[in-house]
Design goal:
The structure holds 2 protein chains of 2 kinds.
Chain A lengths: L4 H10 L13 E6 L2 H6 L1 H14 L5 E6 L11 E4 L5 E4 L7 H10 L9 H6 L1
Parallel strand pairs in A: 1-2
Antiparallel strand pairs in A: 1-3, 3-4
Chain B lengths: L4 H14 L4 E9 L4 E8 L6 H6 L16 H10 L4 E7 L3 E9 L11 H11 L4 E8 L2 E6 H8 L7 H18 L5
Helix pairs in contact in B: 1-3, 1-4, 4-6
The chains are: A alpha+beta, B alpha+beta.
């Protein structure tokens, strides 16, 4: 049975690290809809994938948060990205496989992955 | 419609989060002799009035003002009742809410328990201001994750730290596996 002992070692390693994950106004926010509609459509693995991707790349100033129903249940799982400049992008029918591309292209390089957005979905 | 019991649990626990609970207790308890699986979600949030409790299993009732339906509780209730099990919800304004679903383990209509590790991990890491006590039990074996203990050891609630987050996931996965994969 795994115990909490390992956590003490992690705590000791964490000491001295400066906590840079304080939320502030110039942060990028990745918001995943986690209401009944989102969860039923598969939002849980998507939320997990975003958290993991952000942690693995140790991205500073990027917060992954959850929200309730956005009101477009047929497009769930929905992920909204708010950049610090106020720009908002809505990704729809998001799958865990899309997460790395969204992180690398949009969050890191600043290029919206247009093919996954709600605008592209409406046209298609 | 949810495809796993663990997704129902995640959904219903979000109600406790919205009810501004400071402590949410979740237990998943399998008893192979009695052939039952009992899921309990208890919170100390704002609770509901008698009227709300009466109506909460009705899909056409919601306290939201944006839409006129709410499916979380009806889905949870249905998932238990179709197995021949039962469902109850008790709540008191200002005190909190207890939701309990009992499944017949061997029923062909029982959904798989699903990925409880991911459900608990996302609840714990996304709501660090709330304390969670999660117990998973099958017959005589069990394990508990109490975030108050984690916070005490860490001296903080930084569950988003990659190492801490990874540890919580490993802890859940490993201990679920050791208790018993049977109810999955």
């Amino acid at each position: 049975m795994k115990s909490l002992a390992e956590l003490k070692a992690i705590r000791d390693r964490m000491k001295g690290q400066v906590d840079v994950r304080e939320e502030n106004s110039d942060a990028t926010r990745i918001v995943v809809g986690m209401a009944t509609c989102g969860i039923a459509a598969g939002a849980r693995p998507v939320l997990s994938a975003f958290s993991t991707a952000v942690q693995e790349r140790t991205l500073e100033n990027v917060a992954v948060v959850q929200t309730g129903c956005i009101g477009l249940c047929q497009y769930e799982p929905i992920v909204e990205v708010y950049k610090a400049n106020g720009e908002k992008t809505t990704y729809v029918k998001v799958k865990p496989e899309m997460v790395d591309e969204i992180i690398d292209q949009h969050i890191i390089k600043g290029n919206v992955v247009t093919k996954y957005t709600i605008e592209a979905s409406k046209l298609g | 419609m949810m495809t796993e019991i663990s997704l129902n649990i995640l959904d219903v626990a979000q109600n406790s989060v919205r009810a501004e609970a400071s402590l949410i207790e979740i237990s998943v308890c399998g008893d192979t002799k009695k052939d039952l699986l009992t899921v309990t979600i208890k919170d100390d949030g704002c609770g509901m009035s008698e009227e709300q409790v009466k109506n909460v299993t009705d899909p056409f009732f919601t306290t939201r003002t944006t839409r006129k339906i709410g499916l979380g509780i009806p889905f949870f209730k249905q998932s238990a009742e179709i197995t021949g099990g039962s469902f109850e919800i008790k709540s008191e304004l200002g005190k909190g809410t207890v939701t309990k679903a009992v499944y017949v383990l061997s029923s062909i209509d029982r959904m798989p328990v699903g990925d409880m590790s991911q459900t608990i991990h996302s609840l714990v890491t996304m709501n660090t201001h709330i304390d969670f006590v999660y117990t998973y039990e099958v017959d005589e074996k069990s394990f508990t994750l109490d975030t108050r203990e984690l916070k005490e050891i860490l001296g903080s609630s930084d569950f988003q730290n990659p190492e801490v987050s990874g540890f919580i996931m490993d802890f859940l996965r490993e201990n679920h596996g050791e208790v018993s994969p049977l109810a999955q």
